[in-house]
Amino acid sequence: MPLNRRDFVTRSAVTAAGAAMVGGLSVAAADPAAAQAAEPDSRKRKPHTAHFTVMGTTDLHGHAVNWDYFTDAVYKDAQKNAVGLAKVSTLVNQVRDDKGWDRTLLIDAGDIIQGTQLSYYYARVDPIASDADEVPEHPMATAMNNMGYDAAALGNHEFNYGIETVRAFEEQLDFPLLGANALYAKNEKPAFPPYVIKTLHLGGDRPLKVGILGLTNPGIAIWDKANVAGKMTFNGIVEAAKIYVPKLKAAGADVIVVAAHSGIDEPSSYGDQLPFPEDASGDMAAQVPGIDAVLVGHTHKEVAQRLVVNKTTGKTVVLSEPLCWGERLSCFDFEVTLDNGAWSVTSLSARVLNTNTVDEDPEIVKLIKAQHDTVVTYVNQVIGTSKTDLSIALAPYQDVPIIDLIGKVQQDTVKAALASTSYATLPVLAQAAPFNRTADIPAGTVKLRDAAGLYIYENTLEARLMTGAQIKDYLEYSAKYFAQLAPGAPVDKATLTNQQNTPDYNYDSVYGVSYDIDISQPVGSRIVNLSYAGKPVDPAAQFVLAVNNYRANGGGNFPHVAAAQQVWTSSDEIRNTMIAWVKAKGVIDPADFATVGWRLVRAGVPVF
Q1: How far apart are CA 545 and CA 564, in angstroms?
Q2: Tens-digit pLDDT profile for residues 494-529
Q3: What architecture is the 53-374 domain classified under in CATH?
Q4: In the chain, what are the domain boundaries?
Q5: pLDDT at 358
Q6: What is the 8-class DSSP label of residue 190?
Q7: Tens digits of per-residue pLDDT, 463-502?
Q8: Is 168 exposed, middle or buried (0-12, 13-18, 19+ CB in 10 A)?
Q9: Burial of 555 by CB count in 10 Å (0-12 exposed, 13-18 middle, 19+ buried)?
Q10: Annotation: CATH topology of 381-606
């Protein structure tokens, strides 16, 4: 008899050595040898064909319900996408009803607990990693447990709040959090379960065992260095798969699915974690024999199906990446055949389902309503007022006051921190990037969510010692963001930016100096008229650069900064620093911070 929802979501996680049968889904018997001996000889049986589906999400980033906490409204974008696990749950239940609840699995490829104010609140404001008598359950754990997830891989953003928060989240899950290449630094042994084996009863004389291997991004060692250094190390994705796919085969897995928090073949936007590539799912499929399917994550792209031929076996591996935030659900549809006592995959394809085609699952919405309401109240608290509307819309092309506000807050914070040190007399500059192209601080009342929407990442602030020459190199590197356009050539804003695979968050401007970016020149020769306090910057002069921890640790591979001397650091998020700054000022007045620090030019003529 097929499982119902309540039976289904309360079943135990399946491992290589499991428990008893629950409904149509079971794990290995307590005595595998006895169980095998009890099975009838299937060698004389006719081949038996069956079907099952593995569903997958990735890069949920704290989206439990279809809500935008930055705008305090139902989420919407130009493509009419919907977000959140409540929407995903409805699709999952439809697939289970169609395929059979005991013939489906549900997995995730990481980046679960960072990204919205909902997830931030339960990491920092009312943290799940706490010694309090009553520790809240993370809303993402509540939703995913109810939905009956079978496994999830770690994502790099899982570590943004520290290992303690990851562990607290792991303890709240009814399914394993996998990371075969996440190792203890002290002995290089796995810090999380590398894999899990699920057992499906699909008819025939022998159950089918599905091995799920979880792999995360090795860039964690750089991007969250402060949280993991000396505690955990991260091996390459291909290297780890070469170790654990044979282990899964030896443990009896008939089918192997990898949940990999790594893109298929995207050019790296960082270039900073060699010899372990950031986006290695395609390489893994091509180089590691034995993999049937890969649920891809990390790149926030929609790839319904990608076929990669393994170089050793000639076998086609099927990869799929659903769009982030719960906007899509990937489905791997398997046909398997039991013949002569062995299961084999005879057909496999992947597809994605769109969550904007269904309503939210009311059970998920109800389960996290109290937490959702708490966070809505939190983000709507008033922190000050603004004399004028500050929009980020033009920030990719022009120096706008809202980005200067970030720079000013960071500059003031570092100046105050260094006031009683030997660095007090050095000029302080500040790095900032246009993280969110929809950010806006309205005229009049300013709420916490307005500041949070401007600085959407959990970055902290550092101060690094740099020379004038190094600052110029830093800006030259950043200017690769722009296309090269001859004087007089038409300007298309749609193609002007994001060149050389540079995302918005890797385009830095520097507050405190002034300069032109001559986009008629090639990359590396674009920064002209670099000056400080009205005078040309001396290449040998010393500056303090206020910079976020991601950049300071090497994220984006900007020159010099990662190796530069650290003169100060803070454990508080820059977002909170901004909120505190606004509260202290009371009024946001662009006259206090807005400058035209940089501009795009062609042969000296401003582009805008």
Answers
A1: 10
A2: 999 999 989 999 999 999 999 999 999 999 999 999
A3: 4-Layer Sandwich (3.60)
A4: 53-374, 381-606
A5: 98
A6: B
A7: 999 999 999 999 999 999 999 999 999 999 999 999 998 9
A8: buried
A9: buried
A10: 5'-nucleotidase;  domain 2 (3.90.780)
